[in-house]
Design goal:
Strand content: 35-45%
Shape: globular
CATH topology of the largest domain: Pseudouridine synthase
Radius of gyration: 18 Å
Structural class: mainly beta
CATH superfamily of the largest domain: Pseudouridine synthase
Number of domains: 2
Length: about 230
């Protein structure tokens, strides 16, 4: 097991846990989970470089991408260090034994302290956006989430929410909130007041069954209290 931060040539890599089978890290905001058309350094390659250097591995280092976080979203991620671990973790994702929870800051005051949103989302590949559509719309997928209000700041009219996702649809939290006029703070794609420079969405909780030990593991990491996240102070 390894804790702490490891430096690489782009960012500090914050490692929450590491063994021979998995590595759990904190993905910074605006770093892609994997390579994209921008060519910017991504988490997959950052961790591969760290493993290659730490263990002095020759050739290509294996690292399995089990799940993703959108580029503007930061938070906890697990990567597989063996193909067997990758397969077992991927099975957990499909079987809904793999759990992620998020924090987000949204515009306005929520109508209820707790609620469940159930919608059907349709992704537009050309614009890389999704929208809420009627049930039965061709290629649409059901999207379900629960939310709980943790704090409402009347002065700035923003709410801090805890989100539990039951499905993992494209831009799901952003779309379902914006559809109800509670767009996320800093969300330039789905409409916002422009408060804060970054998207106020953070994956703070990750739970899964260890691929070899068969024990449930839980990791939590809160965002830094800067920008819109200062709402969490006090």
């Amino acid at each position: 097991m390894v804790d702490g931060r490891r430096k690489n040539n782009m960012k500090e890599l914050e490692i929450l846990y590491e063994d021979n089978h998995i590595i759990v890290v904190v993905k910074p905001v605006n770093i892609p989970s994997q390579g994209d058309k921008t060519g910017d350094e991504d988490m997959l390659n950052i961790i591969k470089k760290y493993l290659k250097e730490k263990y002095n591995k020759p050739g290509e280092v294996y690292l399995g991408l089990v799940h993703r976080l959108d580029r503007p979203t930061g938070g906890v991620m697990v990567f597989a260090k063996t193909s067997k671990s990758a397969s077992r973790l991927s099975d957990q994702v499909r079987n809904k034994e793999f759990h992620k929870k998020y924090l987000c800051i949204v515009d306005g005051k929520m109508e209820k302290e707790k609620d469940t949103f159930r919608d059907f989302l349709l992704k537009n590949e050309k614009t890389n956006t999704s929208k809420v559509v009627k049930q039965g719309t061709k290629n649409s997928k059901e999207a379900i989430l629960d939310y709980e209000v943790l704090k409402y700041d009347e002065k700035i009219n923003l709410s801090l929410l805890k989100i539990n996702l039951h499905t993992g649809r494209h831009h799901q939290i952003r779309v379902q909130m914006a559809y109800r006029n509670h767009s996320l703070s800093g969300d330039q794609k789905y409409g916002c007041r422009g408060r804060g420079k970054g998207l106020a969405l953070w994956a703070y909780y990750l739970s899964f069954i260890h691929p070899t030990k068969k024990e449930r593991m839980i990791f939590e990491k809160m965002p830094e209290l800067s920008g819109s996240w200062k709402i969490m102070e006090n």
